[in-house]
Amino acid sequence: MDEIQLIQAAQQGELEAFNHLVLSYQGLVFNVAYRLLGDDASAEDATQEAFIAAYRNLQRYRGGSFKAWLLRIVTNGCYDELRRRKRRPQTELEPESQDGEEPMQPSWLADPGEGPQELAERVELNAAIQRCLNQLDAEFRAVVVLVDVQGMDYAEAAQVMKRPLGTVKSRLARARTRLQGCLQGFVELLPDRFRLHTEETL
Amino acid sequence: MRAGISPRNLERLSAYLDSALSPRDRAQIEQRLGAEPTLAAALKELEGTRALLRRAPQRRTPHNFSLTRSMVAASKPHTSRGWNSLNLVSAAATLMLVLVLVGDFWAAGQLGLGAAAPAAEEPAAFLAQEADMKASETNVPEFGEAAPQATGEFQLYAEPAETNRAMGDDGAPFELRSFMQQNARSLEIGLGAIVLITSVLAWRQRRHGA
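The joint structure predicted for all components is written out below.
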């Protein structure tokens, strides 16, 4: 069954068909939630809630990009969570480490055939990116996550965010400029290969 | 932000980087990049930032997010009771608000027209006349026993004329009318609040699912 058939079957109440869609998109949905919220537990909750909401509201999906529709649900859920956090700031009972970052080299970052040095660098880079993303406002964060981290084009991002193309363009430019200043400080500490300026050399 | 570069130019550079400029704008910016080293340096920095972000590791999903029957037992995909009931409440409150507003305007118009008062007698007079006719019809007894029944019927018809004296010209009891007149503003505010709250709740619910 292709995606459209799976959606139609799911709209008829076939949970099995919907779960095929879950398997196709769970990685993307979880990663977007993780980059927007900045921690695993919240991202897991947001992802699960997004899939439940999507299933319950499947009848309202009227065609177009299912991926964009799904990402809009999770993005809206993340915005709500970020608003909740703003209203009720919480302090961690047990910080992950003294400097607030992940304590070890987490297994999810490990690439087969990668040495401990490379792994450590990737952990550093990941933490730096997340810290800088966390400093952005929710909508600026979302546009960078969708376009730069997930590689979507402007039109797709505009669909997800329900914003005009021009807004996506200007927000992305501003978000990149803000991230630039933040990342520079962290990247200085990383090996040369992370300090390269152009993509051709990466 | 790099000094000397306007937000507009940064936006253009960012779009240029993503090949999202029109051919004309693209040619223009390329011309400027050749002539303005500051602009070229800003483009390089933006490119470096984007390259770093593109290298952000993708997180592995910690578990399978497939749904189970128990997870979705609360509602089926094609029904959204919460949304529907909110819509119904909102629609009912809107209808009531419109009725109250119309009634309010109508009552204001009626109060402004003093000449409307005699008209209130008309339904009572008409009913009394009708009762007389009815009574005369039924008073033609076919059999002797029919007469007491007819008298009873006459009384039955005569009653509304009596009752109408205690009612407004629209048939509504005076107590209700005066209550409506006195509390129209509160009713309007209350109904308006219900419409607003249910609309916001419905919108929020829709937003989560849309």
